[in-house]
Write a structure and sequence with these properties.
The chain is an alpha+beta fold and 191 residues long. The protein is 42% helix and 19% strand. It contains seven helices and seven strands. Helix 1 runs parallel beside helix 3 and helix 3 packs antiparallel against helix 6.
Length: 191
Amino acid sequence: GLLDDVTKAVGSTFTQPGDRIALIGGLGSDELGGSEYLKLVTGQITGVPPALNLDLERRLQEALIELATNATVHSAHDCAEGGLAVALAESCFGETTLGFELTLSPAADSRADAFWFGESQGRVVVSYPASLEDALWDTCDRFGVPVQPLGSVTADWYRFSDNWSGEAKSLRDTFESAIPALMSSEIAVAH
């Protein structure tokens, strides 16, 4: 789709320590239905899938195309599979492993699991130079696309929160070993 074209143009991974990070598009809700997280927790695919706002999705795609064309963003990664936490983690795993520090956390009245792992549609994590922040906000405003600052790209560590932080390399190692570990356990169960 169009987002694939945008990520081909700018990439889906962070490229510059010091860049800012924002979430553009829908800012999420307490939707967990059909998510990878719910599948992991319950062992089954269940629940009502996230709602899709076609008008917002169209405006988001148009804004992303302009942001990529004007080289306003260095990266764009959707939150469709695994939610915000997975999109942020995957954004670290480019040619060089970078990290991030977040300044945003779940609101006190929201579910933390839905905030991090909900797969609400029409949400994209972007990174951009601080010098182009006004251009990012102006473009999103013109297309009627919400923007939420998330934090900044770091050289080699990540911090979701005070209790959830570490070296970016360890995050990558954990992420990359998860699928082989899952496959090994499924093969063992099958025999």
